[in-house]
Amino acid sequence: MFSQCADPSTLDGLNWLGCYLTTGKHISFYWSFLTVLVLLAVTAPIALAFGFGGAMAARSQVAPLRWLGKGYAAMVRGVPDIVFFLFFVIALDQALEWSLHQVRCPDWTEPIRQGLEFKVCPQAKIPPGDAPQWIHQLYGFALAVTTFALVFGAFAANVLQGAMQAVPRAQLETAESYGMTAAQVFRRILVPQMWVYALPGLSNLWMILIKATPLLFLLGVQDIVYWAKELGGAKTSTFAYPHPDWRLFYFLGLLVFYLCMTKVSEIALGRLTLRLTRGQATMAGEAQRRVHA
Amino acid sequence: MTCAEAFSAYALRSLGIGEKLLPRSDFTLCQQVTLIGSGLIWNIYFGVLALFFGFFLANAVAMARASRSAWLRKPAEWFIFVFRGSPLFIQFFLFYEAFVLLPKAGIDIPLGVTTLTVETSWLTKAWAGALIVLFLNTAAYSAEIFYGALQSVPRGDLEAADAYGLTGWNRFRRILWPTTLRLAWPAYTNEAIFLFQSTTLVFFSGFPATQQRGDALYYANYFADKTFNPFVPYPIVAVYFILLTLLLTWGFNAVNRHLNRHLPANTRSRIRLRPQIIR
Predict the structure, then answer these.
(1) What is this model's ipTM?
(2) Which of B27, B88, B89, B236 best probes binding to A when mutated, by most A CB atoms within 10 angstroms?
């Protein structure tokens, strides 16, 4: 990167470290932190939408829809989340390819599951076999995001379902007595009031989501854990920058990164709680009103 | 291979007893159920031991956290923050790398006349290393729960203790601790359930499975990789874990009833499963 880094064997001390930390692979390592942040930024709203849908379905008048919503929320209660991660990544991929196969190759006669293989016709491959590398990476990342969103949507559905039940019944009855329809009550009364009840659960969920991001490594994405393992491993003198096994330090770095993320989130969520409790008919809201009055 | 054969070959495979080679072709449902169930032994081993030892450390840390002396309080706060604020996955990697760096030949401790050589290689094995991480991790999470419960012991209880002249250790053992435990128990049940669930991370995070002796998810992943069909092995793991969760809830409920036995029925604390404290 820098001109003085052209011949690493002549360097020593801080110069060596400076050049070492700016190699191409290290730059990829720093970018992978962005991958984690992007995953968080993309997953959180989608998961929230899934959760909202699940919670709405669980309150539905239509029985099958209600069962679907309740089942979705219950699915994460007894089973480790990592099982879902490992399951969904393959299952989603196969489901997509299978559907595409049905559409594009209707007269394909061979069975798709042949013994130990899953074979669809070449036109149904996702991404297509001749696609460049970055498409494959993007597809992997999209699968990971969907998986995260599905699992965390189930968590969010749990939280939101509880929050919708926590809104005082009297509030809804008042709205009904004003002649609002069910949809109006839901939109104007229930949803604006439920967030304050949902916030403790959702904050918790955000923390869990942050702490689940290293699982990206298991889904085959080149994330920070991948690079920490890769870069930290002992390098013999055939490499430009030989060093002993430094993985411990790389993982210490990751630990600090996650601790900072947690701390910053805690502070931000604390502020958000303060903001959202303003004017609410809860104990904390009442306490705020007293201070201002 | 019949079902009975599969059972006798693989029921204790995760401990290294039985057939050496894992199935490679013609996978039957029996093989998958048996082998994954055999892996569950490790999940139970990690969960039970970490929970048992963690319980004592958690109580100590919670007491330290509530202490007035900063020398006790600050380390306890940091311990809880570090283990609750970072992913368990990273903790596994970190500890594994740290254990690997320990000298292979062991550490010599001079004892004046002789030197004692402490073996360290067993720390890099999952049965010990991962257990230590899980033990520290659950201790931190439980300590936070116990600390919260300790803070919400009713003042009336303490005043009653004072009125009876109970002080120091007696007051703690007879009044403070039982009430703390009773208040903390529903949350602690959740912690126990999620500890058992997070034992599935062990063999995916640095700790190697020697001779393919792994836990339930390790074998499920093996089958999914080999058959390229996730729709059989993962649901099997899921069913096993649901059964395990039901068993745990039942056991913890029994303890909860015991802790609440002196209270009228309407004031007893009930256990509700909340997916809130996974790592």
Answers:
(1) 0.86
(2) B89
Is the Cβ–Cβ distance between B181 and B258 less than 8 Å? no
Distance from CA of B84 to the nearest CA of A (A): 9
Task: Collect all residues with Cβ–Cβ distance below 8 Å to A77 and sequence separation of at least 6.
Answer: A158, B245, B273, B275
Q: How far is A288 from chain B (nearest CA, A)?
A: 23
What DSSP letter does each residue of B131-159 carry, written as one string?
HHHHHHHHHHHHHHHHHHHHHTS-HHHHH
Domain B52-108+121-217+243-267 top-level CATH class: mainly alpha
pTM (2 d.p.) = 0.87
Taking the domains of chain A in order of start, what are their residue ranges? Answer: 42-221, 223-293
The topology under which CATH files domain A42-221 is MetI-like fold (1.10.3720)
Sign of torsion over alpha carbons B207, B213, B219, B222: positive
Cβ separation B278–A263 shorter than 8 A: no
B29 neighbors B3 (Cβ within 8 angstroms): no
Subunit contact A255:B82, Cβ cutoff 8 A? yes
Q: pLDDT tens for residues A180-189?
A: 998 899 999 9
Task: Report pLDDT digits (tens) over B190-249.
Answer: 889 889 999 999 998 878 888 888 899 999 999 988 888 888 999 999 999 999 999 999
Query: Could A86 and B88 be called an inter-chain contact, meaning their C-beta atoms sit closer than 8 Å?
Result: no
